[in-house]
Amino acid sequence: MYPPNGPTFKGDVSWYTVNLDLPPSKRWTDIITDKKNEVSSYVTVSSLMVDTLPYPFNEEIRGIASVSGVPLGEVVLFNIFYEVFTVCTSLVAEDVNGNLIHARNLDFGLFMGWDLKNRSWIITEKLKPLVVNIDFRRNNQTVFKSTNFAGYVGMLTGIHPHSFTLTMNERFSLDGGYIGILEWILGKRDGMWMSFLTRSVLENATSYESAKALLSDTKLLAPAYFILGGNQPGQACIITRSRTHSINPLQLDVKNGRWYVLETNYDHWKEPLFLDDRRTPAMKCMNQTTQAVSFDTTVYDVLSTKPVLNKLTTYTTLMEVVVLTFYNFFQIFVNVIDIFFYIYFCNYINVQKYAQWNNLIINTTGAS
Predict the structure, then answer these.
(1) pTM for the complete prediction?
(2) Alpha-carbon Rg of the chain, whole angstroms?
(3) How far apart are alpha carbons 253 and 249 in whole angstroms?
(4) Distance CA 326, CA 128 (A)
(5) Any residues with CB less than 8 A from the CB of 179 and at least 6 apart, and which?
(6) Where are the domains of the chain?
(7) Which of 43, 111, 282, 285 is spaced 20 to 30 A from 360 at the CA atom?
(8) DSSP codes joined into one string, 242-303
(9) Out of 88, 237, 285, 346, which one is annotated catalytic?
(10) DSSP 296
(11) Cα–Cα distance, 333 to 124 (Å, whole number)
(12) The dihedral of CA 203, 205, 211, 215: what is its sign?
């Protein structure tokens, strides 16, 4: 329920600044100094590819390694991990006044170790302390804002003020990120790392249309979904990418009843995997709300609904580009039995809370 509270809400994401006027190796010093222990705790394996990565990302990575004390190769691996392992839900909706709302849950850590004691994915819990909001500035002016992991120089979620919003979801494909990374290692480097592309787009594109062209046409190392929102009614789309080109883009079309676009990790023209169907519950919730959608009454609740919110969720983001709204929250998936215990505890203290938490059960367990 919005404003965020209750057993799923775990707090706001802290803010930092990255000064793009500094040399690349110095830009992340403040963040990594503050998050040094968390970065060291997360990164546990090695890779030695930094010399092959494009500028300025390679120099930023060198600076992060220097400040954190984590071996350079391990920081490189931390930065390429997301080419193959992110699982997400993103949506852009247009309300009755023509305002665009862009939101996402970022899920990460599937099959990367299960903590039996805490009933959670190990990597997911390691990542949460690394989540930060970053204001990227040049000449003392904001260029773009992002929610990110400390030490990760690519972008998964961001807003270019008053121009466009952007999120990236992984696309599962036989021609996947592993192949592109292998080709890169073997010397074929004509493709772009997808999170470096989103970083470049957020930093350099100046409009929805220019961002859309770059995301549609740039050759990639890995397939992806780019979910893009603009600053005018009707400006929202899902760009489904192979490594070489865009496939069957889906555009917002309010006149024909498509007032939102929603992407998880499956092609929008195909049925999602039945074991991982976050799309159907999310769309059911959106359809029940109709176009009277807003941050405080709808979108946050949709992203807080099981299974859209799950044990892999690391953060939730809400964005409106025109008014430059950029909210980010930590959430935690709570099992039904945990929720009932929480309700009992709240009722024991204050019986007046019953209706509020009863509504929480409905939102969190699938109905909307």
Answers:
(1) 0.82
(2) 20
(3) 12
(4) 18
(5) 243
(6) 9-333, 335-368
(7) 111
(8) -SSSEEEEEE-BGGGTB-EEEESSS-TTSPPPGGG--HHHHHHHHHHHTT---IIIIIHHHH
(9) 88
(10) I
(11) 12
(12) negative
Alpha-carbon distance of 267 to 307, in angstroms, equals 18
Structure tokens at 344: 């009992």
Closest CA to 95 of 221, 233, 225: 233
Q: What is the pLDDT along the chain (368 residues), one digit of tens a residue?
A: 667 776 677 788 999 999 999 999 999 999 999 998 887 765 543 344 677 888 999 999 999 999 999 888 778 877 876 666 667 899 999 999 999 999 999 987 665 567 777 777 777 788 888 999 999 999 999 999 999 999 999 999 999 999 999 999 988 876 666 678 778 777 888 899 989 999 999 999 999 999 999 999 999 988 999 999 999 999 999 999 999 999 999 999 999 999 999 999 999 999 998 888 999 999 999 999 889 877 667 899 999 998 999 888 889 999 999 999 999 998 877 664 444 443 443 444 343 333 443 444 344 344 43
Q: Which amino acid is at 144?
A: F
User: Residue 75 in 3-state DSSP?
Assistant: helix
Active site residue 237: no
Q: Going by C-beta distance under 8 Å and a sequence separation of 6 or more, which residues neighbour residue 132?
A: 13, 14, 15, 16, 31, 35, 147, 148, 149, 150
Query: Cα–Cα–Cα angle for 6, 368, 294, nearest 5°?
Result: 80
Q: What are phi and psi of 295, to 5 degrees?
A: -60, -50
In angstroms, the CA 130 to CA 309 distance is 19
Map residue 147 onto helix, strand or coil.
strand
Both tokens of residue 67? 């400040």
In angstroms, rounded to a whole number, what is the distance separating the alpha carbons of residues 16 and 346? 35
Q: Which residues pair with 316 in a beta bridge?
A: 105, 329
In one-letter notation, the amino acid at residue 269 is W
Instruction: CATH number for 9-333: choose from 1.20.120, 3.60.60, 2.60.40, 2.40.160.
Output: 3.60.60
| Residue 205 three-state SS | coil
